[in-house]
User: Fold this.
Amino acid sequence: MYEFSYVKPASLDEAAQLLANHDDAKPLSGGMTLIPTLKQRLAQPSHLIDIAALTELRGIEVTAGQLIIGAATRHIEVATSMTVRTALPALAALASTIGDPQVRNRGTLGGSVANNDPNADYPAAVLALGATVHTQRRAIAADDFFQGVFTTAIEEGELITRIAFPLPTRAAYAKFPHPASGFAMTGVFVAETGGRVRVAVTGAGPGVFRWREAEAALADRFAAESIEALVVDPSGLNADIHAPAEYRANLMKVLASRALRAILNSSEGAVA
Amino acid sequence: MKPVANLSPEPRVVGKRARRIEDPSLLRGQGRYVDDVPAEHALEVAFVRSPLAHALITRVDLTAARAHPGVAAVYTAADLAPILTHPRMPFGFPTDALPRNTTPWVLAIDEVAHVGEPIVMVVADTRAIAEDAAGLVEIDYESLPVVSDPRTALQPDSPRVRRELSSNVLQHYHVNYGDVNAAFASAPRVFTEHFWQHRGLASSIECRGLFARPDPATNVLTVWSSTQMSHELFRILSEALALDENTLRVIAPEVGGGFGGKFMAYCDEVATVAAAMLLGRPVKWVEDRREHFVGTIHERDQFWALEAAVDAEGHLLGVRGRMVHDHGAYTPQATNVAYNSASSVTGPYMVPHYDLEVFVVHTNMTPVAPVRGAGYPQAAFAMERMMDRIAQGLGLDRAEVRLRNLVPTAKMPYTKPLKNRAGAPVTLDSGDYAACQDIALKAIDRAGFAARQAAALAQGRYIGLGLAHCVKPTGRGPYETAVVRVQPSGRVSIYTGALAMGQGLKTTLAIVCAEQLGVDLDSIDVMAGDTSLNALGMGGFASRQTIMAGSAVHVASLEVREKALKVASHLLEAAAEDLELRDGRVQIAGVPGKGIKLAEIARKLRGSPGYSMPGGVSPGLEADSMYQADIQCYANACHACEVEVDIHTGETRILRYIAVQDSGRLVNPATAEGQVHGGIVHGIGNTLFEWMRFDEEGQPLTTTFADYLLTTATELPMIEVIFHESPSPLNPLGVKGIGEAATLPVAPALVSAIEDALGPFGVKVNDATLSPVSVLSLLRGAAQAAAQA
Assistant:
């Protein structure tokens, strides 16, 4: 770790001001990615602006058919919130599978989505549910937000404040966890919202993406068999020492089928 | 040695579950590991290690590193040369069979042969400063051809792993007996298989580390090391650095696990001590996990081609084959892993004729030395897979084929025409292998398995049952030391050359002592692995310490007991036969209150100036023992397990795991069980997760625990351990080793179960590590083969 200054602002405005004033400042939320990066000396920020406790970034509520969650809400809070478990059980279930208990107790929704790790779980939910990412400046549709590996529409000094999830008719998430980290080696989120089916895949490709072939097949017939009939081209998918691209291509079908079975076998969506 | 009285068949303390005397301090966070030893004003070391698997060093520039604030010294091999007796490490196991130029360099001079080899040592005020300065060391390399597969390395036209080698083949030999080719020529059936066995690292929670503190007041250099053998480190340090034995003391503090990784003295350790000597200051080096992955030994790969000849009933007529062993870049310790494999293939079975051709081959990867099991697991895997193949080929039951070939108890001691490295015969001394199999099969409900499998299949689930045996020679000699002393305070001290590294050794030795002296476990202190307390000692390896150190403590405790009885008999004016040792006293049996405290006897045996010793005994209520043995006791195990394989993802889930272990008499069933659990978890890792991977350029690909996968609690089933106790006749306690015998059967049992689960697809599994990706590719291969057929 290199030396840096730690600052804990009292308000979102102050946080934004600090970020604007210091070119090399970074916002710190749960720190589940940032702190290990600092420890390995892969980053050298001048200031860490701790936004985890800002009241503007907290809170879980359902209004006007949307579930709205503050950016600094920790994974464990999403996983155990009665509001989330009632309104969007698939999201609560997803949060309960992130990393390990230590990560869930520190990591936050906004941190995960802003970081856009290609193996993170939340981006699959945000994209499949067609959520809206709110910052202190604007609202960004999920389809415009994720722009590839660790890249998003977020600009310098911009902070995610909350994420609004439209409530789906039915939804489920299925993942194959990395055996050590708990990240998704591949994860598939299937959601039907307002009569439209969206399928988002994380872990398998360079950043979260919508699986359009699956969406079309499920629009025809909402059943696991529709997925099993698809052919997934592994070219362009991720390959590493744990799994070649072909293995991930297979996982996409297996996990999408499991998500569907979970939806169809239960009255409410759940994690497969 | 004079004959030793055996432990009573009905002991009072031995065999009862006891809490570990180690735990109160460990659980309070008071354990003192090497990095906890107070080290004020100590300098800290960081090494510059080779980033390449094979290269010439063409330029080293230390200017910037030496100028960095807080740096005390930056050393190359040339800087250490004046105080080293030789630029290479001394031999681990002294042997005439190996060339002098096979051991690693203390620091590399002009050529590096694996990633992680130390080249430059930076000594600074803190580790952080040392690391920063290490980053300022400039080294130019000229790449040389890399050999990263032992099968390629043994080809005559292969590039050499080091320029000084004329061949990469360090050893080429046969281990054999009988006339194997004649046996095969007339055999009704012959089975041939190829196996790949990977074993990874020791992965102790605590990495290596050493702290060297010169003391000008006493002129003694004290060295604390996280090692499995402090006396061996003492020898190597005195040899490499020409240290007078009276000026050196090596202490093993608490050791956070060994598992083979600390079963030798390393170049980093010699270099750190050299730095302390050159600077005349305390110097500490604590290995980080990245260093551990490349700088601490691995066990890695063996490639087998094995054939078994049998008659129509499945009786083994002969076994022959060829094995290529990846030895890594140097020989830091010995070549025993390959020999252990080659001499143990036939395991618990009667095999009339045997021949294995062995190649011990250098590669440009981290050196290979024993990890828990030390070559025996690979041999057990090869043989047990073969037993399954024979059963399948002959249409016989797996258990029945084994039963027909297991050495029966009636034939024990059963001597095989093989020798261990001490030259002692390989003799299966005791055990009941058939009974262990029977217990395992009953415990797993083998009888009901067909119905369970059919029911699962009807739900689209694939479950399988696995079975495997092993025998493991334990208690390697030649000796271990123990001093047992009753102090005038009444506390009992045990000093031993054995080494405690987390397995509960201190509790075990205290129990053996308490059995004879009639004292509470809480009144016993065990000091292990301090060269100033025992001049000689061997340390912790090869499942030996309960056998060797336990027997040494038993012998010494008996002697102390006899002496206490003799003195008490004199003082109490009672016949020794009427006395008993109980509650820290010697008393007249059946007459409570009429007796004398052991502490009182100890005080009297310190002697008073001019007075004679009471009872005419020698001074001190103490005895020391050097327990010797060359012949090893054979522990055995039979494991049975049930797994479910997800044919869509290739994942294996262990549903049940039964371990029937025969480690002879158990001193403490609680710690014995713990050792079995640990051994099995290690075996599960070897089978399903642990895989130290390198690319073709010899670059390690798995140097974090995110990439090198260890078994975690979430993957574990409840492990059911059943002990079958056949006391060994070879030592006075009747004990045998535990920890390794639990690892050996795991890979063959799990793979057998996975293959059984995938039976409907005709999948054959001959390799481990077996990842989910490998399982899916086996399924795909079987499907393609079926489509072509």
